[in-house]
Amino acid sequence: MKFLFYFVANPPDDDDATPSKDDDTQTAGSPGSGAAVLVRKTRSPTNGEGEEELPPVDTLEACDKAAERLRELSNHLNHGEIPMDVLQQTVTYAVSVLEAIYLDETKRLLDEDDELSEVQPDAVPPEVREWLASTFTRQMSTTRRRSEDKLRFRSVAHAIRAGIMVDRIYRRLSSSSNLQMPAQIAQLLKNSEDWSFDVFALNSVASGQCLRYMSHYLLNRFGLIQKFKMSTASLESFLVQIENGYERYRNPYHNNMHAADVTQTVAYLLCQAGLANWLTDIEIFATLFAAIIHDYEHTGTTNSFHVMSGSETALLYNDRAVLENYHVSQSFRLLRDDENSILSNLSKEEYREFRSLVIEMVLATDMSSHFQQIKTMKTLLCHSDFSSMDKAKVLSLMLHCCDISHPAKDWNLHFRWTQRLMEEFFRQGDKEKELRLPFSPLCDRNSTLVAESQIGFIDFIVSPSLEVCGDMLDRILRHVEGHKDGVIAEDSTVPTSRSLQTSSPANSPSHSRASPRLFNSPGQSPRHLPSGGSVPRPWLKCLDNNKKMWQELSDKDAELREQITEASKKRFRDYSNGLDK
């Protein structure tokens, strides 16, 4: 015997309905309230083999049964896990019932105008409308006469929402099979929505595996692991090998912590700046992936050093974006191994788009392209037509800005990054000295003025870059806010073309990956839109404070150098006077 949970018809929003102690109880609201609540405890009939008999989907009993089973499912989700086969059977049956109900509604309204005509032309492109009609008509044709093939948009919309609900539940359940994080790491990662996230603290508690945990957390947070059906084992293998590659040369700066920091900063802009609302899932996946691998197996030396020393890597890539080409090439080479095949479920079209975006974004982290990127984006921002905003260029500039963003973080973080970067530069200077090459800028440990160099870096590179990036994100936010009723499909009456591309997993074409992202982790949704019509710019305060701190250190260094100079002059005068005597 199987007992079902309580079934509440037209339940209140807060799930606080309390069932009666009696086995069968009916209560009705006042006539003016428009609400009726039926609370009952039922025992399901079986077919003699222990399996529950379900009424035909086109009957009122089926609607009753579907509602009961969905409430049972809801209780399981709130209080624990549920077997995947039970989930699949319940949702499949409920969706079939909903389809039957709306087919019946369609028959009743055959003489009315097609409800698709009520939708604004730009809300549902003709090709999407045609795809929806052809897809759902084939599935439903067995229950209708040929003369009744006129499909109503409302039934399509509700079926789509049912698909979104199934996707959300599936992601929520399947995420439990992903990487299990220690409590201390999980607690730290909850702060990943902070602009000045402390990746040093994360690396300490993660036993030197901060990139692995950060990457897994963010890919899961944006629903990408489930969306693209990544094998947990393949993802784990890939992330472990990527992290090992970052540690290959034991660099003070270009290591796994830098990669984790850049990846977290990219995720911050995707989420807090509302950028995720403008992008498809494959674009978000490519952006996070590019951040994760953008300095893979970095040698701890600059492109200039590779060119000047005539390294094999420089010869391979013809002296152009030497390291950046190497990073992306080696990362995709890893993906060719079966044990790292996290892209195996992408269609050919998705893979081409993904690879193209990743290559362009990683190559854009070459500092030699900095001023051209800034100039290009300023030109795009001057155009009144938003369609001129090229996504690849937007994402490339964003990754580049995140790559050089440490001067725009809290002082305690920025100072530690600066110490590490200068030590890496000085180690290169030591190699240049051994090879009898001229010192590269900032690489001579005996003469480099660190404070002054950072002030210049802030004034001429970081601050202008983030200003343009902020203007770019504001422009995108204004565009998204103007279309937010269409972007957030499950909250809108009429889904847009992007939201309508979500269907059941079995029938999803490749372009259905453009569906709204679902959120799997505590914290603010990646689909959150900033309030006030502008993107938050926490970097402004940090830049101002850090520049002041460097100026104070610069003044002290100048005073110290003056004292040393005076002491040297005094020693020289004393020595000269001794010779005269």
From TrEMBL:
Organism ancestry: Eukaryota, Metazoa, Ecdysozoa, Arthropoda, Chelicerata
Family matches, as SUPFAM superfamilies: HD-domain/PDEase-like
Binding site for Zn(2+) 2: 295
Positions annotated to bind AMP: 254-258, 295, 403, 454
Biased composition, class Polar residues, residue ranges: 493-513
EC assignment: 3.1.4.-
Catalytic-site annotation from UniProt: 254 (proton donor)
Cofactor note as given: Binds 2 divalent metal cations per subunit. Site 1 may preferentially bind zinc ions, while site 2 has a preference for magnesium and/or manganese ions.
Keywords from the UniProt entry: cGMP, Hydrolase, Metal-binding
Any Pfam family matching the protein: PDEase_I_N
Protein name: Phosphodiesterase
